[in-house]
Amino acid sequence: MKAIEVRGVTKRFGSVVAVDDISFTVEPGSVTALLGGNGAGKTTTLSMLLGLLLPSSGDIALLGQDMIRHRYRVLPRVNFSSPYVDLPHRLTVRENLTVYGHLYGVPDLKGRMADLCRDLDLTDLLDRPAGKLSAGQKTRVSMARALLNQPELLLLDEPTASLDPDTADWLRGYFQDYRRRTGATLLLASHNMTEVERMCDQVLIMKTGRIVDRGTPAELFARYGRDTMEEVFLDIARDRRRPDGPSWGEP
Amino acid sequence: MILSIRRVAGLCLRHLYILRGSWLRLLEMAYWPLINVVMWGFTSQFLSNNSSWFAQAGGVLIAGALLWDVMFRGNLGVALSFLEEMWSRNLGYLSVSPLRPGEMVAAILVMSFIRTMIGVLPAALLAIPLYHFSLFSLGLPLLVFWTLLTMMGWATGLAVSAMVLRFGLGAESLAWVMIFAIGPLAGVYYPISVLPGWLQSVAWALPPAHVFEGMRAVMIQGVVRTDLMLSALALDLVYLTLGIGLFLYAWHGARVRGALLNVGE
Question: Smallest CA–CA separation between B121 and chain A, in Å?
Answer without folding.
Answer: 26
